[in-house]
Design a protein that fits this description.
The protein contains 20 helices and eleven strands. It is α/β, with parallel strands linked by helices. It is elongated, with a radius of gyration of 32 Å. The protein binds one RNA strand through strand 6, strand 11, helix 13 and helix 19.
Length: 516
RNA sequence: GCCGCGUUGGUCAAGGGGUUAAGACGCCUCCCUUUCACGGAGGAAUCACGGGUUCGAAUCCCGUACGUGGUACCA
């Protein structure tokens, strides 16, 4: 066992969105930077929201990102179980909750949901819109603090539905050190008596996180900023149950924000960028219930995992240098919790695409060739000559931001352009040019060898002979071969598609241009 | 309402008492290229506000504003 043990604890209730993946990533980078273990534990205590397949989905996302856990329900490990539902079976949560009751730090509460609702509406005022089950109100409720021991025992014996709540002490200040924010202080009077053990016997997050971290010997705990307000509950639980000296070090990560406020799952369809790492086939997480429109995940959108973790790592952390492109290994080597921001960061899709563009340029074509090939095949273009395919990708990679761009940028290498941008040709098209091309077809037919230099030479030779500037002819030629004003140098394209296709495309285009 | 956390260009951000306040994305101009990109050179644009402390504040302190989170038998 390593001395550093960092855990990521997702709940299998929804897709892995940007904030979630960044939390994993920071956990992982921190652990690996310190030579420690990265542990994934599943928090499946909320059965009502549990979604089948969600757990597998989480691991699929991690795998795509290149993150392999050292311990997890899928990978095994010595400190299992790695699912809370399984630890519940072992009775640990109940055991510790009972211990807290016995020691006077918690109590049984028999209030029904209706009674709780009544309390909240009865005590609701303008100054206090959401009354809490706290030291002000707990003596007005139905619990083992207000009931006699005999009645409590009777209710318990009768199997009355009940929960166990923490009894927040009065007048204490709980403080702890956050690795990112420094000392955080909270007054216990302002925190409510959180439920620790639910009526179904499942722990709430508050109990589970403490018990699990203790049992799994976790040394460092990263989580989102939204946990900060309940941190004093967890600190208190550590103090009562296992001792503060055994408590892991905390780091509360800043939020990732969307174009307006906190990034939500809806923002994907709203603003047209992915918010999830991957699509989730079992329950399409990006689907907008209203429009039934699916927002693709980063993977499906055509991001490279290298770019994805890179851009995510830089959203809230930087190395303190001007470097922005990092491999996973570099991130591990350079990651430092001291350089994580405390303020939230707004996600910028334009910058995200820039990262991917850089990675497409930076990586060797062969490392993503297969993904592009699959893309081509899904559009009905089968690739037979792998070597040629790789060459073509190399030719157009500078022009591609997302993987699907490869299709648009190189489809003309494989098939004749479906439409020609005639508007680009029309204004300057004339009979001289038409004559040039019919003449050039002859020259092409007589060409000994088919290579860039030869093609270009014959083109320029004939142009000079006809007294037309070669540049004026290159543009129409490009439209003929490509369909539009884009792509690598024309003669390179001509060479790649071959003599027959070149001549065919010129002939075809000449017909179309005839009506201009 | 109360409590927590935050605030350097439109965005990501460096800088943490003296700087012409880095760099990147995006935007604009120019060069390269008779295509589109890539590449190169420039440009516009910033310390939320108000008080202190100090010879001197983006930087330290206090307020205010704004943002965001929590205030569930959700995590």
């Amino acid at each position: 066992m390593s001395t550093i043990r960092v855990r990521f604890a997702p709940s299998p209730t929804g897709g892995l969105h940007l904030g979630g993946v960044r939390t994993v990533l920071y956990n992982y980078l921190f652990a690996k930077n310190k030579g420690g273990d990265f542990i994934v534990r599943i928090e499946d205590t909320d059965q009502s929201r549990f979604v089948p397949g969600a757990e597998q989905y989480i691991f699929d996302c991690l795998k795509w990102c290149g993150i392999e856990p050292d311990e997890s329900p899928l990978h095994g490990g010595a400190y299992g179980p790695y699912r809370q539902s399984e630890r519940k079976e072992q009775g640990f949560y109940k055991k510790y909750a009972d211990q807290l009751v016995m020691e006077g730090h918690a109590y049984y509460a028999f209030d029904t949901p209706e009674e709780l609702e009544k309390m909240r509406s009865d005590f609701k005022t303008a100054e206090n819109p959401s009354p809490q089950y706290d030291h002000h109100l707990r003596m007005k409720m139905k619990n083992s603090l207000t009931l006699t021991p005999a009645v409590t025992a009777q209710l318990l014996a009768a199997g009355t539905r009940h929960v166990i709540r923490i009894k927040m002490p009065q007048g204490e200040t709980v403080s702890f050190n956050d690795m990112i924010r420094g000392e955080i202080k909270n007054e216990t009077d302002l925190v409510d008596d959180k439920v620790l053990l639910k009526a179904d016997g499942m722990p709430t997050y508050h109990l589970a996180v403490v018990v699990d971290d203790y049992l799994m010997k976790i040394t460092h705990a990263f989580r989102g900023e939204e946990w900060l307000p309940s941190a004093p509950v967890h600190v208190l639980l550590w103090k009562y149950l296992f001792g503060l000296n055994k408590m892991p070090e905390w780091a509360h990560l800043p939020l990732i924000l969307g174009p307006s406020g906190k990034l939500s799952k809806r923002d994907g369809t709203k603003y047209g960028f992915p918010v999830f790492a991957m699509n989730w086939p079992q329950a399409p997480v990006g689907t907008d219930p209203k429009t039934n429109e699916l927002t693709e995940g980063f993977k499906e959108k055509g991001f490279l995992p290298e770019a994805f973790i890179n851009l995510l790592a830089l959203l809230g952390w930087n190395a303190g240098t001007e470097q922005e492109l990092f491999t996973k290994e570099e991130l591990i080597a350079l990651f430092s919790i001291d350089r994580v921001h405390s303020g939230g960061a707004k996600f910028d899709y334009e910058k995200a695409k820039w990262f991917n563009h850089e990675w497409i340029k930076k990586l060797k074509v062969e490392s993503y060739k297969l993904k592009v090939k699959v893309l081509f095949e899904s559009k009905g273009i089968s690739i037979s000559d792998d070597e040629k395919f790789e060459k073509i990708l190399e030719l157009v990679k500078d022009r591609c931001t997302l993987l699907p761009d490869f299709y648009d940028q190189s489809i003309f290498f494989f098939t004749d352009p479906s439409t020609l941008d005639t508007d680009a040709v029309k204004p300057k098209w004339n009979d001289d040019k038409k004559l040039f091309f019919t003449g050039w077809i002859n020259a092409l037919n007589n060409l000994q060898s088919w290579d860039v230099a030869g093609i270009e030479h014959s083109f320029k030779e004939l142009a000079t002979e006809k007294n037309i500037k070669p540049g004026e002819l290159q543009s129409p030629l490009r439209i003929m071969l490509v369909g539009g004003k884009y792509g690598p140098p024309v003669f390179v394209i001509a060479e790649a598609i071959g003599k027959i296709a070149t001549i065919n495309r010129i002939n075809k285009a000449l017909d179309i241009f005839a009506s201009l």
